[in-house]
Amino acid sequence: MIYTSYNILFLIILPVVAFLYASVGHGGASGYLALMALFSFAPDVMKPTALLLNLFVAAIAFYHYYKAGFFNIKLFLSFAVASIPAAFIGGMLEIDASIYKKILAILLIFAILKMLNVFGKESSQIKDVKVWQGLVVGGAIGFFSGLIGIGGGIILSPVILLLDWGKMKEAAAVSALFIWVNSVAGLAGQFSNGLTLDSQSFLLVGIALVGGFFGSYLGSKQFNNKLLRYMLAIVLIIASVKLIII
Fold first, then answer.
1. Backbone angles phi, psi at 77, to 5 degrees
2. CA distance 25 to 204
3. Taken in order 156, 185, 71, 63, is the CA torsion positive or negative?
């Protein structure tokens, strides 16, 4: 019922998006939302569907990065303490479709810059996250995660690198679990408002999982496919422009 707007092309691109996002430790919600925007999904469908896909793909990404020894629990907790309740509150709120699209278009800029590797530089001097910094950053990202339907990792990961709070692989591992807990909280907020998921949502989950598994496995090693990232960046740019002008 809710998927009358997608076709075989959507199903082909979906696992590719999951593959690329999982390769850098992300669940891929911003990519899924961009893809759904291109295929004219309604915002009330986009938000829960993206979070549901996030749950499964981010879990796989976290598993591979954790297994490779990159997870820093102290760094994760610095942000998660505030982000989880904030994501729940954001998930409870409903906003106008036009405002939703504009906010999403702005957040996609972070995803575009990430895929273009603008935030790819590491610092040799890692700094500790102060309590107030973790609460402010985690709370702000968590709120918009629940409100828009993203996990927040696409924003947190660049922030960690820009402020020298962790290494690239460490940021990926922390972001993967950060995405998962925010997605759970965001969905919980939506369920508290009477959200029901269409059974066909799990078809998309299965398709995305295939790409997410291989992407996170290779990403936790030494994988770096610039061409595919640039192609995804183009898709995100097109989706962002469409969200702004429509």
1. -65, -30
2. 19
3. negative
